[in-house]
Specification:
By secondary structure, the chain is an alpha/beta fold. Helices cover about 55% and strands about 5% of the residues. α1 packs antiparallel against α2 (about 20-30) and α9 (about 180-200) crosses α13 (about 255-270). The termini are far apart.
């Protein structure tokens, strides 16, 4: 099992400096190595369209801002730091779970769109997706707080990737619940905290609500909700739901992350496990551990 962090620095710089007419093909070439992330999508997949829909960096404007952001990331050693963090985190996870299996993992680290108000505002300039075994995508803007948390962001997604790899937890779109999603975010955050501490480990969007009892109680009422179209409202809150055009439920941004941290911390304290050891822990048992103590 190996992890490949694609050299998107060189690719993005080439795209941003190329004639506008050449940029779509260059972007598609950059995205292609991580196309396995979309293997479950119905029909043909337009990688460039998905990039645009997912707050990826623009290829027809803001070149100077994006090139400056690339310089910031390069100066911070972002790609090298990410490779090192992922290799070290993988070793920790495999030591804690000797039987764990996963395919080789491809990581695509890309700039976000500095003009995307939802990405730069409520999302705080970072999104990640690691739930498809073998592929991780991180979209990023180098705000100082994000650069400081780069390693934690990467290993959070790695925890997802191994949790949902073959032989691990099965994410069945027909039956999966909000509770599974929230627990997976809590476990991934707990793993990042295990490696990088409580200051840098938690996903930034959940931090303001970690100790908000009203938010926690509200999230608990939605744990059995199914239908993945409903998850954003419970995990990312009303602003995320409204951004996607789905019905809000009265929660702030990152509510599910905050609640997931609390559920997982209760379970880890009760079992004496680390987040690495709890890689494949059953979400229903994690939730039940909290509910039993109420």
């Amino acid at each position: 099992m190996s992890i490949t962090v694609l050299d998107t620095y060189s690719a993005m710089r080439r795209i941003l400096l190329a004639p506008v007419a050449d940029r779509v093909d260059l972007l598609r070439s950059m995205l292609e190595p991580n196309s396995g992330m979309y293997r479950y999508y119905p029909g043909d997949v337009d990688l460039v369209a998905i990039h645009r829909q997912s707050s990826g960096f623009p290829i027809d404007r803001d070149e100077a801002r994006c090139l400056d952001a690339l310089k910031t990331l390069a100066a911070a050693g972002a790609w090298e730091r990410m490779r090192k963090a992922l290799d070290e985190a993988l070793a920790v996870l495999l030591e804690a779970n000797p039987g764990a299996k996963a395919p080789d993992i491809t990581v695509l680290f890309a700039l976000g769109d500095p003009a995307d108000q939802h990405f730069m505002g409520p999302c705080l300039g970072v999104t990640g997706f690691g739930g498809i075994s073998g592929n991780i995508a991180i979209t990023f803007w180098p705000f100082p707080e994000n650069v400081e948390r780069l390693e934690a962001t990467a290993v959070h997604e790695l925890h997802h990737n191994l949790r949902f790899s073959p032989g691990g937890v099965v994410w069945d779109p027909m039956t999966v619940t909000v509770g599974e999603h929230i627990v997976s975010e809590g476990l991934a955050d707990a793993f990042a905290r295990q490696l990088y501490g409580d200051e840098l480990g938690p996903a930034r969007i959940g931090v303001p609500h970690l100790h908000d009892d009203a938010v926690f109680e509200k999230v608990l009422t939605g744990l059995d909700v199914t239908g993945m179209e409903n998850f954003t409202a419970w995990v990312h809150g009303d602003v995320g739901a409204e951004h996607l055009g789905v019905t809000p439920v009265g929660l702030p941004m990152g509510a599910g992350y905050a609640a997931g941290n609390r559920l997982v911390d209760t379970y880890l304290a009760a079992t004496g496990q680390t987040a690495a050891q709890a890689l494949h822990a059953d979400s229903a048992e994690i939730i039940a551990t909290t509910l039993r103590g109420r």
